[in-house]
Structure formats: C-alpha cells, structure tokens
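Researcher: If only I could read backbone structure tokens as easily as an amino acid sequence. Walk me, if you will, through where the backbone shape changes along the chain. I have put the entry right below:
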Amino acid sequence: MVEQETVRLRRLARGRAEEVGFGRWLRNPRVTRSALGAGCAERLRATVGGRHVLAIQDTSELNYERHAGRTRGLGVVGNGRDRGLFLHPVLAVDASSGCCLGLVGAEIWARAEGTPPARRQRPIEAKESHRWLRGAALAREVLEPAAMVTVVADRESDIYEEWATLPGPGFHLLTRAAQDRSVEGGRLFAVADALPVAHRHAIDLARAGRRAKRAARLELRFGRVTLKRPAWLGERQAPATVTLSLVDVREIDPPAGEPPIHWRLLTTHCVDTVDQALQIVDWYRLRWLIEQLFWTLKRQGFDIEASQLETAEAIAKLALLAIQAAVTVMELVRARDGQDPRPAAELFEPPEIEVMEALQPELEGRTQRQKNPWPKHSLAWAAWTVARLGGWKGYSTAEQPPGPLTMQHGLKALAQIRRGYDLTRSVHR
C-alpha cells in the first residue's frame, strides 16, 4: 500500500490471480482484526521505553455510500443517511519531539440500526462513547514500558467516568472540555472566565476546515477545578468529585469573519506555573497529527473510501492495514526535522537503505544547503531522501516542509527504483 499509494486491490495486485487472492484473504474468517493490529503494538512496546508518550485518539467516518448498493454489513454514518463505518485509531507521539512513533491500535465498527435506549439509561459500557475509554485503556496496556503516557483527545472524550476511573501513576488524560459541568463554586465555564490572565503569547495556526492559516494572539488562564458527579450517575459508578487542572486558552482580536479559538483544556497533570500551562497547550496542539493521519488515509492519500470490497468485515480489515500504511507516511513526515533519533532500519529494509545511499550523489546538490543534513542511515536521513524523491527541492528554509503527499510520492518512487535494483542484482548473479 505504501509503495503503490493506494488500497485498491486491482492496483496493488500484479495480475488478476493476485487480486482475487487478496480479496479471498481479506474475507477469510481466520484473518482476524486483532491479529492484523498486533504487530504494530509489539513494535511500539519495543521503542517507547523511557519516553513520555502522547496517545492521541480520535474518530473519523469512512463513507461508502457510492458503493452501498453492493456492500453488506455497513451502518449509517454521521449524516444519518449514508452507509459506512467508523474508525477510531490511537496514535503514539513522542511528547518531547513531536515525532510519530507508530500506531497503538484502532477500532472499526458499523453503527447498529434502530433507535437505542435513552443515553442516560445505559451504562457507559453500552454506549458508543465507551470507545474513548477503551482507546485509553489500550494505550495504557501497549505503552506500559513508557516512562509516562498522556492520552490526548478532543471534546467527545470529556466523559466523567473516564476522568474518574482511568488516571493513575504515570498515566494522564488531557481533553478539551465539552460540557459546562457543575463544579465546586459554580459552573465550569464561569469559573474559567473568572480566572486571571496569567500570560499572553502568539502561535501560528494551521489551516483547518474553514479556518484560515494565521498567527493568533492568545490569553492564557489556568487553575484547579473540582468536577461534581453528574446527577444520573450513582455513587457505585463513580466518585462524587474529581479534581483536575484547567487551562483556558482564548484568542484576542481574531480577523474579521473568523471565529476566535477558545480551548478549555482539562488534564490530570499538575499545572501550577505558566510554563506548565504552555506545555499543556503544546501537547494538545499535537492532536492535529491525527487529523493529518485521517487526511493521509482518505481521498488525497490512500483513498480508503474507494475500496470496492463487498462486506463490511473485509473493508474493516483493509482499513486496519491502510491505517498502518498511513502511519508509516506520518512517521516520515515527523522525522523530516531530525528530532527522531531512530535508525532508518526501523521503517526500511536493508536493500531500500542501500538504494537510498546510492541515490545521495544524485539527490544532493552542489551547495551545502542542498546536502542531506542528517546522520547517515538515520530515520531523518531517510525522510530527507524520500522527500527529494517525492519532488521536494531540498531547500529547508525557502519552501514548505514536505508533507504526507510528498512522502507518499517519494515512497512510490523508492519502491520502483528498488525493484529495478533487485532485478539488476538477479541478472548479474
């Protein structure tokens, strides 16, 4: 998938027989989702020792409405009409460098038909939102060798049971508040508004949806809040209160027509200083990486929604493989700045590294600015090489840094060159 920039079986296969074989393999009940995800978890466990790891989780829908007439087992997606699946991955990121370390795991499901019982009448385990707790619990299990783990999520993960049951020594939560909860002293949003401004600073905001790219001037507030247990939860289900740190970030004077950003961040980390509050904001901003992962997986990347498999189970297995391919691309994107100390051998086979080494004289220019600046055989060295093969010019200050699409193109070019390299060696044996 990485080499061909696609998940379409017809393009992945070298002929009709292989295409049919791929399809049969994905439909085989002995090929299980748990087995497909086990390899990435094992690889992660071997690399996270001693690190502080951010486990970033989020949900995206896979829309197969254009294939719905011949596909079985799909459910409705967010608009309540189209057919598809939901995907919930957990991405591991180094908290210090922002480097992508790999995939913790991913959950895929079709939404059940019919109207479920009232939400507050069901235990958390029976709700679709329980995926946030399962994702965090999986991160705690897989990333156990890490020195510390912080689960980062957006507003849907603001669940009282999660705050009450999951945190522990070396295991933290960081979530954007979704609800104006009851807290000791009033309501959460009013308490946040009453906090004094502790700091003002500016950040660069990437383009997201309708939001334009811009420099945003921000006010920072922080303090401690004690959440009260919601009235519909009993004392056997959760403790009466949970005390957390609150970091409030709001934009000053946004451009005309642009809604101001306003993040109320709740975390189990202790926040007593401006530096600690700024660190929380920086960790939350790395949540953007999982949005890039979805972008890489979908139409402008691997185009997972173009799959023409006929059963939801086969599509789910294909999606599990595709998300791993997309994470490989993301690992290279984050390694491009030299912050990732891992060797190239973490992602590439020895023949691929030999090919990259042979290509250096061709890819490097005459001036020092056009040389590969990273240690030989490091992951950053490999990322620079792949980016050049993908069309990046190599001027780190004069052009945009290479993104997922450039890395995909570069990986495809590397695969083609490697095939020629292997053929030449076989002819001359």
Q: What stands out?
A: The CA atoms of residues 63 and 79 lie 10 Å apart. The chain has a mean pLDDT of 90. The longest strand covers residues 214-228.
